[in-house]
């Protein structure tokens, strides 16, 4: 069948089973890979079109007033689908609406074979940043002139489908063969399509970049060559050739403007390296700090033949440096240099482990089948094997754990798989690189487990350094949760999916006695039961202790810091007994795994099976150590322990955490005192222009670090107005309804002035949730598209993109939205900060650190709570102005910034801007004049 019919619908909503109706149909016909016909019509829905839909599509009630009803065109539409595949971008949506209308019109439902371009695009373009139609067409450079209109969307979907066919034609035979095995689990009826290109592939010229090993096709890893670099340029001349008039920056950037602070930062970093000193540099927004620190790092590494490590807070920023900043620098400087990106082992795919999964009869479900299909295509493209390059289905990451390089423990260097390991290749690249880009988490792992991960280095630059101490604390602490234990125990089972011991025993069916197998299964069942029982009891314990407390963390959890000697001793004794029983069962499982490995050894146990058994035993031992550390080891004043439960989650959804209360001495001893030069930089390191807080927090007092604050090149006084209302209701404990109502009214009033384009930052997820509900209630006719973290679906990046898509939109965020969210230009004109970002007084870490500081005779508020809040506030403030042309209002609902004695610390820590403290009414008048 070579006829394909593409359909796209515009509707009044998302639910055909209720009252939503079709308002426009667009159809495009493809034959012989050519668009040969099209059809389009508006439809009368017999109901009002919501304002939100009119804003999205441009289709109004007036447009459909004289349009036909669906039943009038039903036969004409269905006739177009005869002897055809039905294609849509999200087939369930379009076909669901279409068949719903056909049923209501007494017509037969369409039962054509279907091809879903969302699903096929996920498989064939696994590295695409998004699978929404307009973003996917941008990625594939398909012209899309009129998005959210049915015929235009149908045309670009047709063009997308032709691109998908081109991609299929380029895939190796082995990849297509694997896709055919997975097709039965997919939503698309793609067998004939996959099979056609598999048969055609026999005649396709082989791609030299693709290697085949044991039936697995993957992109070859380039041979690493190390060239010698000779530096014959002084550092001053080097910077002159880049930064100064007629320099390489001016030649390579169309709108280059010299920033004095950028060169100043480069010079200071070079001086720190030369004098072997540590340095702290606060580079405010607009400095261009990434370029400013990369340039001296590269020069120093090439001229001294000593690598420099660059550490970022997130793996996303790592990728940004590698894909955006480094290519620019290669155009700026006259000599070559080598850069490598290195992440933790869990980020890299293991070809060996994937192969092992594929040679077994795949016990799959939809998400796993989709995940494997995406991985197979991605392997023909990726140079790194880094899973962050693609977006897997949510449960696909559980599958990826099984096939990540984390599972490559004990790999034999003489093995053929060792030389096909993406992780080993990444390590080799790092060993030969001048610059190694990593992240804080991996850096911390290397600090406490030297030589295990990063190559040897003496100099490093830590970006986003205001997060460094928190990352150290988390790394040096412990984290354990029920789901992780449940998943691990499940992998040891013998249920319908492929589980570890069941799979291994299937290789050696007669190796163990039936009695041994029965005992194993009983032990496993007992351990699962005891573990579930423990976590349910912990859930109930926290629920009762925090009964009546309605405060939640910013991700909707109830938190409780525990101290064994202060708990209800009767109940705590029960908990300790339950923990002891779980640990006893886990030890029996460890012993059982070792015994199974010993018994199977005489049956010539496969190396990979042995590794799986021993790795599982090691993970179970980690659980034992963590449970004992949490509950059975005597509490220390140097450590904080706490539990979190999901407010509305399962009754065993418990998370256990511990962190040191102070890491200053630890960092001094194992990091700063043993490295030549560490440069720490961020846009937010100072409090009232002083580095004292961060110096003490990181344990740098005895190191006498260089310090420098580099001002932003932006003219904040002309670009920003800071407004604080003096008539907002006061928040009292448990009674903040009036405050929320005033906040929501101010948000909507400001939205009318700024046409939406507003980011609202909360410190409490509960307050965000209640404000979202009230805004929906107060808003007339869905005037603004409203997106809220934790309520609207999607990641932070997805919410940001959706927010930018709409002309009139409001974005509500908490937690991670206070930093790292860049919305430049007219997309963001107003920033609302609902409350000063103090941690709740009952936050476990704040409680413990406050107690620790009190015992040292220090003021916890002034030396911990306030500095943390000021740093957070500076990050939030920085969301508004991202370029010299940005302009807008920062509206702070919390009058404490003016009325409290500590308010001056917040105001003096941000750039000087016009500040207005007045009634809400007067502030709105001023805002209207400002715009």
TrEMBL record:
ATP binds at residues 283-290. CDD domains: DEDDh (cd06127). This is 3'-5' exonuclease DinG. HAMAP family: DinG_exonucl (MF_02206). 3'-5' exonuclease. Belongs to the helicase family. DinG subfamily. Type 2 sub-subfamily. Keywords: ATP-binding, Exonuclease, Helicase, Hydrolase, Nuclease, Nucleotide-binding. One of its GO terms (molecular function) is hydrolase activity. It comes from Virgibacillus dokdonensis. A motif (DEAH box) lies at residues 463-466. InterPro entries: ATP-dep_Helicase_C, DEAD/DEAH_box_helicase_dom, DinG, DinG/Rad3-like, DnaQ, Helic_SF1/SF2_ATP-bd_DinG/Rad3, P-loop_NTPase, Ribonucl_H. It holds the Pfam family DEAD. The gene is dinG. Its EC number is 3.1.-.-. It comes from the Bacteria. NCBIfam families: dinG_rel, dnaq, PRK08074.1.
């Amino acid at each position: 069948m070579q006829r394909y019919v593409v359909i796209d619908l515009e509707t009044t909503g998302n639910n055909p089973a209720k009252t939503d109706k079709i308002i426009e149909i667009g159809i495009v016909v493809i034959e012989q890979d050519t668009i040969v016909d099209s059809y389009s019509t508006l439809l009368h829905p017999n109901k009002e079109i919501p304002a939100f839909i009119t804003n999205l599509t441009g289709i109004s009630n007036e447009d459909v007033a004289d349009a036909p009803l669906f039943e009038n065109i039903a036969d004409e539409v269905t006739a177009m689908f005869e002897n055809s595949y039905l294609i849509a971008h999200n087939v369930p949506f379009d076909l669901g609406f279409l068949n719903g209308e056909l049923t209501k019109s007494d017509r037969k439902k369409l039962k054509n074979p279907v091809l879903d371009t969302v699903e096929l695009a996920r498989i064939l373009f696994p590295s695409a940043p998004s699978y929404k139609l307009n973003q996917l067409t941008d990625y594939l450079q398909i012209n899309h002139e009129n998005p959210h209109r049915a015929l235009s969307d149908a045309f670009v979907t047709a063009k997308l489908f032709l691109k998908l066919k081109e991609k299929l034609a380029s895939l190796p035979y082995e990849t297509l063969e694997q896709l055919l095995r997975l097709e039965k689990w997919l939503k698309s009826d793609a067998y004939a399509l996959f099979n056609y290109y598999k048969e055609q592939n026999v005649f396709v010229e082989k791609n030299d970049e693709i290697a085949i090993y044991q039936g697995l096709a993957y992109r070859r890893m380039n041979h690493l060559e190390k060239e010698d670099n000779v530096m014959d340029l002084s550092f001053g001349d080097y910077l002159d050739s880049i930064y100064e008039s007629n320099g390489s920056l001016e030649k390579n950037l169309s709108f280059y403007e010299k920033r004095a602070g950028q060169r100043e930062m480069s010079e200071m970093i070079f001086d720190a390296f030369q004098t072997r000193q540590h340095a702290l540099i606060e580079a405010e927004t607009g400095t261009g700090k990434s370029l400013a620190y990369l340039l001296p790092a590269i020069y120093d590494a090439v001229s001294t033949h000593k690598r420099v490590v660059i550490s970022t807070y997130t793996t996303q920023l790592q990728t940004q440096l590698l894909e955006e900043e480094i290519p620019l620098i290669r155009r700026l400087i006259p000599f070559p240099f080598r850069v490598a990106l290195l992440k933790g082992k869990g980020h890299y795919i293991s070809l060996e482990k994937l192969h092992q999964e594929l040679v077994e009869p795949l016990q799959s479900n939809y998400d796993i089948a989709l995940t494997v299909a995406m991985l197979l295509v991605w392997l023909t493209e990726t140079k790194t094997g880094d899973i962050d390059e693609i977006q897997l289905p949510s449960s696909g990451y559980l599958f990826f754990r099984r096939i990540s390089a984390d599972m490559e423990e004990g790999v034999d260097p003489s093995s053929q798989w060792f030389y096909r390991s993406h992780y080993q290749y990444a390590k080799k690249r790092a060993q030969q690189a001048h610059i190694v880009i990593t992240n804080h988490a991996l850096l911390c792992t290397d600090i406490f487990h030297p030589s295990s991960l990063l190559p040897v280095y003496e100099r490093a630059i830590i970006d986003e350094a205001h997060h460094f101490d928190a990352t150290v604390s988390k790394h040096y602490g412990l984290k354990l949760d029920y789901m992780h234990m449940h998943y691990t125990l499940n992998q040891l089972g013998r249920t319908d999916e492929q589980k570890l011991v069941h799979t291994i025993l299937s290789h050696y069916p007669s190796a163990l006695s039936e009695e041994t197998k029965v005992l194993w299964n009983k032990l496993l069942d007992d351990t699962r039961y005891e573990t579930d029982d423990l976590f349910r009891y912990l859930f109930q314990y926290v629920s009762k202790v925090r009964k009546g407390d309605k405060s939640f963390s910013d991700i909707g959890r109830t938190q409780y810091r525990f101290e064994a000697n202060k708990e209800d001793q009767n109940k705590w004794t029960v908990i300790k007994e339950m923990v002891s029983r779980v640990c006893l069962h886990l030890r029996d499982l460890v012993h059982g795994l070792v015994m199974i490995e010993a018994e199977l050894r005489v049956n010539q146990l496969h190396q990979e099976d042995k590794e799986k058994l021993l790795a599982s035993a090691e993970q179970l031992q980690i659980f034992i150590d963590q449970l004992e550390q949490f509950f059975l080891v005597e509490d220390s004043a140097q450590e904080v322990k706490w539990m979190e439960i999901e407010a509305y989650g399962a009754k065993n959804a418990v998370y256990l955490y511990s962190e040191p209360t102070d890491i200053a001495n630890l960092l001094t001893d194992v990091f700063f005192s043993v490295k030549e030069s560490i440069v720490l930089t961020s846009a937010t390191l100072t409090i009232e222009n002083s580095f004292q807080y961060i110096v003490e927090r990181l344990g740098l007092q005895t190191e006498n670090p260089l310090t420098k604050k580099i001002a932003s090149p932006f003219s904040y006084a002309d670009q920003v107005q800071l407004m604080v209302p003096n008539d907002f209701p006061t928040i009292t404990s448990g009674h903040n309804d009036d405050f929320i109502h005033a906040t929501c009214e101010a948000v909507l009033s400001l939205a009318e002035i700024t046409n939406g384009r507003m980011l609202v930052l909360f410190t409490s997820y509960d307050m965000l949730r209640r404000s979202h509900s009230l805004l929906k209630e107060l808003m007339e006719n869905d005037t603004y598209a409203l997106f809220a973290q934790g309520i609207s679906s999607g990641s932070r990046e997805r919410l940001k993109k959706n927010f930018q898509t709409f002309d009139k939109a409001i974005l509500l965020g908490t937690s991670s939205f206070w930093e790292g969210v860049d919305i430049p230009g007219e997309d963001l004109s107003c920033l609302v900060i609902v409350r000063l970002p103090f941690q709740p007084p009952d936050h476990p870490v704040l409680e413990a650190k406050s107690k620790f500081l009190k015992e040292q005779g220090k003021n916890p508020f002034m030396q911990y709570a306030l500095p943390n809040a000021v740093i957070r506030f500076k990050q939030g403030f920085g969301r508004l102005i991202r370029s010299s042309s940005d302009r807008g209002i920062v509206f702070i609902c919390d009058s404490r910034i003016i009325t409290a004695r500590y308010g001056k610390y917040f105001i003096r820590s941000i750039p000087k801007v016009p500040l207005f403290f007045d009634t809400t009414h007067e502030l709105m008048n001023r805002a209207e004049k400002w715009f």
